[in-house]
Amino acid sequence: GTPEFHSSGVVHAMSASRPDQETPNPSDKEYKAVIFLMLDGGADTFNMLVPHSGCAGKDMWQEYNDTRTGLAIPKEDLHTIDASGSDQKCSTFGIHPNLPHLQALYNQEDLLWVSNMGVLQQRVTKEDWRSKTDETSLFAHNVQYSEVHRMDIYEERAGRGMLGRMVDALLKNDFNANSVSVKGIAETLVSNLSPLFVIPSSGEYGKFDPMSSVGDSDPDVLLNKMKDMNKATSLGSSLFAETFSSLLFQGLAENQLLYEALQAVELDTTFTKSAISRQLETVAKMVKTKDTRGVDRDVFYVEMGGYDTHSNLKQSLDELTLDLNLALEEFTSEMKFQGMWENSITLVMVSEFARTLTENTGQGSDHAWGGNYFLAGGAVDGKKILGEYPDDLSPDGPIVFEPGIVIPSTPWEAVWDGIAQWFGITNSHDLDQVLPNRNTFEDDLFPMNTLYAVTPKSPTLSPVQTSTGAPMKSPTASPLQTSTDAPTKAPTGCSDSPLKMKVNGKAKTCQWVGKNIANRCKKRGVKSHCPVTCSGPSFCSRDSTKKIQLKENGNWKTCNWVSKNSNKRCMKIGMRDTCRITC
Question: Is the pTM of this model over 0.85?
Answer without folding.
Answer: no
